[in-house]
Structures
1.
Amino acid sequence: MSILVLAEHHDGQLAGATAHVVAAAKAIGGDIDVLVAGENVGAVAEAAARLDGVVKVRVADNAVYAHQLAEPMGALLAELADGYSHLLAAASTTGKNVLPRVAALKDVSQISEIVEVVDADTFKRPIYAGNAIATVKSADSLKVITVRSTGFDAIGEGGSAAVENVDIVADNSQSSFVKQELAQSDRPELAAAKVVISGGRGMGSGENFKLLDGIADKLGAAIGASRAAVDAGFVPNDMQVGQTGKIVAPELYIAVGISGAIQHLAGMKDSKVIVAINKDEEAPIFQVADYGLVGDLFQILPELESKL
Amino acid sequence: MKVLVAVKRVIDYNVKIRVKADHSDVDLTNVKMAMNPFCEIAVEEAVRLKEKGVATEVVAVTIGPKAAQEQLRTALALGADRAIHVETEERVESLAAAKLLAKVVEEEQPGLVILGKQAIDTDNNQTGQMLAALAGLPQGTFASEVVVEGDKLQVTREIDGGLQTVELTLPAIVTTDLRLNEPRYAKLPDIMKAKKKPLDVKSPADYGIEVASKLTLLKVESPAERKGGIKVGSVDELVDKLKNEAKVI
């Protein structure tokens, strides 16, 4: 068996998610190659070559792969996939955008967001917003899979894989990049943070999210939000944790002013320890919280910050 | 321009699901079903394009059991002009759904196809992308804004870390994210009128497509239950528990 992992990268840096996907590839077993596709991705390829267990890094460095648009990326991967039994990518917005396109081009199914490898053909994945876990077996010759990062511990560094260039240049007349607006943040990446503190509608306003800053600073935490807080315009949508936002599984998740709707729980209920701060003691969040504190967040948050 | 919208009948998003005792699947007997929330957004966007004069006709399509016609009638009540039902009682995985939709696209020649980004039952997030591949069309996934400019489409996409805008040639495939729009409710007179709108019933065989998949669902289980937690009485107690009991800070 041989496995091709699509590297996740942003701004010339290898994203942490890739080390989780390589871990899933290791669980499947076999030779692991990593594909780095993009423009000016030399540093990304070097970082990928250091990942433990990677045999070969294949680099497609061309302007056509800049921003990893689905059309050229799909064509590239469809051409490369023939030599492999498994094609894996992180269940990020890039992986979710590109991989189903590849699967259809190769006339195979895709298995989305696996959280466990049972064997090389059999995988576990959550369905119904994480309220059930399905075990699925694929009889396709090529398994196309996206990996939920939080399901696999990242592998370490220490490898020294060979790096080789891929000369395939897909042509793309159907799509072009126009612009990108990325939220600026000095805090850890939400999906990879050890501690996450999230605010919901109970925060009352975007201004009040500043109450989370001091606590986040002290704990080295990323700040998240519920969909209600995003829809109310308190914070941008890339902070959303849930079925339709990011899936997180930190050591500690602190939910502040979040009721705990099914769709929010889908994004955080695999956290090791959950703390809920809410004034409504009937809020469903308390059913999943290890530690609940009933009270007014406007009094609790400053006190918590001072006592950390 | 004709706009095709794909909708799916799924369990209502507010329902707390139950896994069957034999672990074969989720129990859907006597459970409230509805249109997938992302599909509602797709229908809304198509109808808005019609109201703006961009779309000339909105065609809703679904694949599924006879009862899925309820969701097509909902789409018609919301403003779709006619509907196509590809009727099958079988479990249809994303690839087969995309193949069937590709046939409908070939037949209908829409200028734009809008789907939801994912169905809340299987949570796959695949069909739109697969359809784009099979139809040989560009894709604008996770769209939070869609602007038609002549024979081009500007799509703002929700990506990890922010927003990305891409330009696609038409025809194209778009999948909706939650923030694309706020779907309207169907009004009673429109629900009555929708009963008279045309609804074609087809079968996968009419399109020469095999629904069978190489994926087998072996088992469905409930996720590990979280142990019931405790309520603490004060911030001091919380900090103490996190430091000394849970040891996470």
2.
Amino acid sequence: MSEDQIFEYFHSEIVNYLYNEKTGNDLSALEYIGYASGYRLIERLTREWPRFKDELDTMKFICTDFWSVIYKKHIDNLRTNHQGVYVLQDNAFPFLTKISDGSEKLEHAPKYVAFTCGLIRGSLANLGINSTVTAEVQTMPSCKFHIQVNRT
Amino acid sequence: MTIYNMYVFDKYGTLLYYGEWNRLRKSGITEQEEAKLMYGMLYSIKSFVCKISPIDTKEGFLYYKTNKYALHYLETPSGLRFVLNTDIGATNVKEFLQQIYAKIWVEYVVKDPLWTPGSPVSSDLFKLKLDDFIKQSSLYGIRTI
């Protein structure tokens, strides 16, 4: 209970610190923190795991085990076009559940999801999948993470 | 039973939130003036109760009652002050205020990253949750006698 709160408060302060009027709309630092955390986190989380069969298997791991370690819940919906695009939908994304809904608050949403975008990208990178992750918030507190796998 | 209105002050006397449900009579002054008056009175009562008490008190001032309404007071260790006006039949209001603090205030104000500590609460989500919580409670709207 209390360690979740620390994570929540810490995250919101990092957002406040990195994202203010001076730096403008630059979310890259926040995203990078997420990337580095995700990259390291995966080392420890997967040590009991066999290798993943394929990309979809890896995504399922992200949606269930990975998500429950960080947010104590599962992703509500996973969709894919089987061509490298995955959409992860969380209907009550924890960083957004305490913010009130409304159009003027909605503009604050991107800065609270940037860290998590990086987190997903970093963990996938360490599992051998290079990707681009973006997030989309239409109504609070629901959030969609779009993962575009980069094939080379 | 019914709940009339609620004030939340911080330790410096700033009005953080004011909510109104069944208030029948207006004070005729602005909300800010009324808040100052209310805070001043609470401050006085608190020090009066402490000074005049013949024994050591743990909690100090808890509530007062007139013929028509009761004012319940909860002060947290951090200095937040919750004030709730109910009719005189209301019971267990102290626990109720504690629940408002723990379940609504901490969850939807303290954990709201867009709220700056010490500033008035503008979150619609908090207002909504507080409204629901008040209206679902047995203190609200049900006439037992």
